[in-house]
Amino acid sequence: MKIAILSDIHGNVPALEAVLEDLPRDPPDLCVINGDAINRGPDSLATLRMLARHLPEAIYTKGNHESWVLRCRDEAIPREGVQFETKRFAYWTLDQLGDQLTQIDKWHDNLDLQLESGAAIHVTHGSRLGNRDGIHPRVPDEQLPAKLGDKRDLFIASHTHVPMVREFEGTLVVNSGSIGSPFDRDPRAAYARLNLGMEGWRAEVTRVPYDRQATERLYEESGFLDQAGPLTRLMLRELQISRGLMGIWMRTWQPAVLDQTITLEESVSRVLAETL
Q: I need a labelling partner for 48 at 20 to 30 A (CA). Which of 15, 31, 107, 203 fits?
């Protein structure tokens, strides 16, 4: 049994194209799109269409960004003011996707798979604690039982944008990393290949180079940078340096922005200045 896990594409079409070209090198029996296919990047609609065309049998789980865009659809806040500005990029994605959201509604929150061999697999975007609670390589062993829950042979997660293969008490724990915006200082797209053989599961995180300049052009040409708010500048910089910045902004500046003691534009400029 061969499984491919694709996650955290974030509307990065050139990165997804490169991964789709790499997949036939060792064709999987099953592909799982493990959340965050959309949002936080320039072309969510083309991403969904490309996945449907090339991987029509794939199984999908929701990530925190699918959940966020669906929540934007359902909540009623005025499209003005500081609260909206911090979410403008998600509303931009919402408007881009239109009717596609009815399909995202149907995606799984997580997956439990039982193979004919008896192997038990759990797939989730984050962890058992939610799709915003990830499993990072630095997570200490004592925190893993709560994140992994009931024992499985294989536990597959994503979300952190940092790939990982780790054994824990008889469970192979795999984080597939990110196709569209890796945060481990390696700019290549990352996805996971899993192979069940006579000796159990083997996992490999595959890295694929792609045309990052083409993605940067998409940030401009799609209107994402101009129309989706100042936070898109952080997202572009994340792409360029393969390091997470939005988390830094949220911890350091978001409360002050919401309290209006600093403008969103100024807070973004300060984070960017610290990364130069």
A: 203
